[in-house]
Design brief:
84 residues; mainly beta; Ubiquitin-like (UB roll); five-stranded mixed β-sheet; 5 strands; Mopterin_synth/thiamin_S_b; Ub_Mut7C; Molybdopterin converting factor small subunit; Beta-grasp_dom_sf
Length: 84
């Protein structure tokens, strides 16, 4: 099945080079894929996987190893952001 995978801010560096300017890509995943298994091939440092949303809804860290996605879902991830 297909989902949309989005990375923001410094995490875009972990996308394939041709996708870094748009920050998203379509991904073909297995129906039982979890958030953790989806992001594993991208080698994201887990300390930078801060805000995780599926279709705009926050996914708590404890759910990320077991939460699966559905056809057409959008998985978006942001690193910690500092401001001031």
């Amino acid at each position: 099945m297909q989902i949309t995978f989005k990375l923001y801010a410094s995490l875009t560096d972990y996308l394939p080079a041709d996708r870094r300017t748009s920050n998203w890509m379509a991904l073909e995943i297995e129906p039982d894929s979890t958030i953790a298994t989806i992001i594993a091939p991208f080698n994201l440092p887990m300390n930078l996987v801060h805000l995780v949303l599926i279709n705009g809804v926050y996914v708590y860290p404890a759910e990320r190893a077991t939460r699966t996605l559905a056809e057409g879902d959008v998985l978006a991830i942001w690193p910690p952001i500092a401001g001031g």
